[in-house]
Amino acid sequence: AGNGLQKLFALAGDPDARLLGVKPAADPYPLYEKLRARGPLSQNRMGFYLTPTHELVSAMLRDQRLGTTSSAALDGVRWQRHPEDEQLVHPVEHSLLTMNPPEHTRLRKVVAPWFTPRALRDRTDRVEQTVTEFLDEIGDGEFDLVRDFAIRVPVRVICDLFGISDDHRDAFSRWGTVLAGTLDGIRTIRERRAVRDTLVEMTAFFDNLVEHRRTHPGTDDVVTGLVRARPDGAALNRRDLVALAGLLLGAGFETTVNLISNGVTALLANPDAKRLLIEEPDRAADITEEVLRFDPPVQVTGRLTHEPVEYGGTRIPANRLIVLFLGGANRDPAVFAEPTRFDADRPNNREHLAFSSGIHYCLGAGLARIEGEVALRELFRRYPHLRAAGTPLRREGRTIRGLRSMPMHTGVPR
Ligand code: HEM
């Protein structure tokens, strides 16, 4: 979703104010149920169409008559202020997420090889080493689950993919926070300035990295691959290169950090599931899958009708925005029995839509699954008595759901 779309979300008034409005609800799930009670497809005062049902979200994500949105299409608040800002590259607006075929198809093919099951199999050991290293550093006692663990794992994994060290992790996480914020729209001058400043830093960083790889190619890192790629016989242009690298960085950790923190939250609240993970660590994949269904890091996305479509007797004209609640689809009682229950034994938890569907289906899904699985399994293997040691702080924002901070104690006797 582009920031224009999100700006419109922000303007969307009652009755969806708490789902789409400026101040997001701490717990959106009851709101999805209110929406569901209104029917599979409703329209709000802004003229947006909204759906929380699994059937419609899934069908619409795969419907080629719908496309992604960009802020240009929706004329939202722009972060560009000056002509020279045209040189800045926005990793969401200028990349796969907001592209439509045929550009989307061409670019996606270029990065896909780093995410095949085979490429991922080769990365699993490294993810395990990484997790072990960070757990060793935590040792025993109090720590912050987000700062000291959940964020470090995906940042390191993505840096490995880029063939760079994670020395810049503080800058990355600062950029990630600002960019994830833009998914919810830019509302104030301060926010706009923060976005622009971030894009200045980020564009420079990736411009440099790309240039460096031109002259110092690596062996199997993704940036070298992007520099060398010649889809349809031509090299990628600078904007595509920088945007794609930025997207991989941002999408690679701003989401996965929340898979881990939402997973720990769910497991601490569900002792049976926690016991299962500790007693049968090879069930970690099922548990991770249920975390993705139960509390997905990306709660909402949007699509624009490219032509008139009809769903369930409702005709939607061209150029209308449809808001798709992934978090609502994942709790649809028509697909998931007792959807509010965390249940790792659910026969169909893989039908969740946490990674979207269709042509924009998350490229990093396999990698995220490995990270979630290894992180949760090893964390609880090491600290079966892990417990909260303070009040967790939720992230603000509607699109991304997770925690900003989680003070914990490793639970080892003092
Ligand atoms: C796209 C979720 C991890 C890279 C998406 C979309 C969702 C999503 C919902 C599609 C949005 C839409 O259809 O509008 C998640 C979640 C993750 C995660 C919940 C972690 C739990 C990752 C990782 C990477 C990644 C680790 C890369 C290293 C991407 C890319 C796209 C994408 C490149 C754009 C694909 C396209 O437009 O063709 N992700 N993601 N994601 N994700 Fe992920």
From TrEMBL:
- What InterPro entries is this protein classified in? Cyt_P450, Cyt_P450_B, Cyt_P450_CS, Cyt_P450_sf
From what superkingdom does this record's organism come? Bacteria
Instruction: Name the keywords, alphabetized.
Output: Heme, Iron, Metal-binding, Monooxygenase, Oxidoreductase
**Is Transit peptide a UniProt keyword of this protein?**
no
Gene Ontology molecular function terms on file: cholest-4-en-3-one 26-monooxygenase activity; heme binding; iron ion binding; steroid hydroxylase activity
State any GO BP term from the record. Answer: cholesterol catabolic process
Which family does the entry's similarity section mention? Belongs to the cytochrome P450 family.
Which PANTHER family does this UniProt record tie to the protein?
A: BIOTIN BIOSYNTHESIS CYTOCHROME P450 (PTHR46696:SF4), P450, PUTATIVE (EUROFUNG)-RELATED (PTHR46696)
Full protein name:
Cytochrome P450
- List the source organism: Tamaricihabitans halophyticus
Q: What is the lineage of its organism?
A: Bacteria, Bacillati, Actinomycetota, Actinomycetes, Pseudonocardiales
